[in-house]
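Issue 218. Parser rejects a valid record. Input:
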Amino acid sequence: MNSFLVWLDNLISATSWEMEVPKAYGTFHILFTVIGFAVCVLLAWRLRKVGDAGNKIVLLSVGLFLLISEVYKQLFYSFYLSDNTYVWWIFPFQLCSVPMYMCLIAPLLKPGKLQRYMYNFMMIYNLLGGAISFTEPSGLLHPYWTLTLHALIWHMLIVFVGLYLAFSGRGGKTMADYRCATVTYLCLCVLAFAINLLLRDISNGSVNMFYVGPSNSPIIVFKQISEHFGWYFSTALYIPAMCLGAYVCFLPIYLTEKKKVPC
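Output the parser choked on:
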């Protein structure tokens, strides 16, 4: 066991390539965003007609990649950056972490309500979360190549999954589907809040899954609100804002499908 830990520590150290933190809206950020979104759109469109077997391959491949890369990230922080101490704030249950689980679970379910809820959530809320992260990329850009590429590729992949589910028709196109996704989001917010409470003492308040409290939000605007008026007030604004943002994200899909329906 000790030899394995030594090997693991050496592996992490060997891949800790330092870099100058890329500037938000600098050349690196803009090129990655533009090229990445173009590739996501083209690939999602090309894969829109895959059957059930192909769908499993697509989603399970994404899910496995996310899982393996997340394990690496957790080890990198624990072994290399934190002297063998777990960093609680990176506990993998943020909004953009959820696709790692759903991509591994949803394609294995029988077609039905639970699978539909997961597909709708990934198509609407994770597409929104992935896209927004590139507009305010401070959390994606790190002083290490592996961490920066992990964050950028991770969020680009969840953009791809959202587009793929939209183009393939596996994600919903009706207001009922938006409500399904929103119910899923609200349930996950409750679960995230429970995790925050459960880990609050052991993490010294650093755990803030879904940024719903009781710790103050780190998100721009909501950070200032929580500091001045309290986390509960910030959360009461943040959750409806996310639901509204998801609605705006879903609206083009809904209107496009509505036009296809003859009067």
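Fixed in the parser; the record now loads. The chain has a mean pLDDT of 94.
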